[in-house]
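Quick illustration for those who missed Monday's session on complexes.
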Amino acid sequence: MNPTLTDAFGRGIEYLRLSVTDRCDLRCFYCMPEGFKDFETPAHWLTFDEIERVIGAFGRLGVRRVRITGGEPLVRKGLGELTARLGQLPGIDDLSLSTNAVQLARHARVLRQGGVQRLNVSLDTLDAERFAQITGGGKLHKVIDGLMAAKAEGFFPIKINMVAMKGVNDDEFEAMFEFCRQHGFTLRFIETMPMGSTGRSAQGQYLSLQTVKERLTQRYALVPAVMDGGGPARYMKLADSEMRIGFITPMSQHFCDTCNRVRLSVDGTLYMCLGQEHNYPLRELLRSGISDAELEQHIIKAVNLKPERHEFGDKPEQSIRFMSMTGG
Ligand code: SAM
Ligand code: SF4
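Prediction with iron/sulfur cluster bound:
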């Protein structure tokens, strides 16, 4: 089905990012401040029934891809039940998950059975000490166990998202490449974005992926490639294998003119853009007893608010939300 949701700039919206929590069991320094506790109160979390209702409405409006994210989605209790419910909604034919994989080993089976096909796992380093530094004390072996469990359960593709940072992990791109090649994972590099105070201070470690691409192209025989997934990454592949690497370049080469997504945060607010404040709160409307038809009209109105582009480059101070709040 073609998307019936179109924004004021003619972009079709067919992708929803659903944040099921703003909490996390890690504290990546570019994402969440150390000791941060100012989380959304549980009474404001959309319930599973409310989430199912909103996603159902998006499905009727032509959205067919839903990515579950957070915060760390695996800290939300009953996620397996939610994914199974969402996987059965008419129109939703692509259910995927973004996770730090710390708790993935024990959730992998139920998520796979619940219809999650594709996984994105954040992993910035293969060095245990460095991992602990980046993530505020995380244990690398748990992530590796989670990845191996996911591989054994048959998730495909599994994409490793690595935030490329000067002086932090820029000596590890080739090692991560080899790790991904060995396990059949896709490697994607991400540029740091000035989301919230944490993201802004991480701009000191910003590395343009144009440089990373040049470095890897000199070392490996890479050719342009495509990869299904609905996202903004630009891909290359090894000439003699299926190994793919993607580059997500919100800063050096923004992709706003093809942006096809909106985000639903745990408190039921629709955010139209990662870098802008345009939003549409749905929670109170849902709790006031609106009909499904009214809900669809509100979603259409919300999508119309989508701004033309982010302004990370020109006005970085304007992005006040941390990535974990909106659902990266
Ligand atoms: N907790 C899950 C995870 O880490 O994959 C899902 C949510 S996390 C907010 C989603 C993605 O946002 C991760 O890949 C993370 O690396 C990325 N991220 C967070 N803050 C960022 C920033 N300031 N710049 C670029 N990427 C960021
Ligand atoms: Fe947590 Fe993901 Fe943010 Fe790291 S990037 S602090 S794992 S939400």
